[in-house]
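Z., the sequence and structure:
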Amino acid sequence: MKSIIDKFEFISFKDNFIELNFSTAKNGLDFNMNTQNGLKNLENIKKWFDLNAVGYLRQTHSDEVVFYDSIVKDGDALITDKPNIAIGVFTADCVPVLIYDKKNKIIAAVHSGWKGTLMQIVSKTILTMRDTYKISLDDIIVYIGPHNRSCCYEFGKEALKQFYEADIYKELNIYINGKLDLNKCIRSQLINIGLNENNIQDVKICTSCDDEYELFSYRKQKENCGRMFSFIFIRK
């Protein structure tokens, strides 16, 4: 389902009280938090979606999971149970993952680059949600957003060795023709902790080669690349 906010475009999904949005680069919509324009657009989300606040992190390609408290912290996964507050992550090739508990109204946003994927940040985030809120994995829904997919994500063999040294990845066919499949890695994390495979949704969009949407891709655009913002919120 597509949703247009003024001249901009978001890839949007709703499930009762949960709303998920993956921004695109249409008309230059940029959420780079290190620029005035990016900060302005982050602030605009409150107006566009009628929200009280927008939470995000200084991303460091880590496996650090943070609970939202209105302060911008270092980390790569953000969790909250507060309604009318969007939490999100910035990407321009890395994998944005949006997560929610359909029963208990707990949400999370995860930035999973290759380092975060290697450290299994997505599954760690879900386990943190489970242990903190005493929820069931059967109620967890996961959306894997636009990223540089296995069709385009060229990856060096030296760094690849780290994946095959990890028990969870070493038996997987994640490297074909010099390209790494982060999607397959993340799905394996989820299945390994017991998530229902039917609860894993994939938007199936590549930031590098998709021709339906305008998207930022750091590998293609380098220094001139903006940032997309993938966010989720609980509608009160």
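The mean pLDDT is 95. DSSP finds six helices and 14 strands in the chain.

Let me know what you think.
H.
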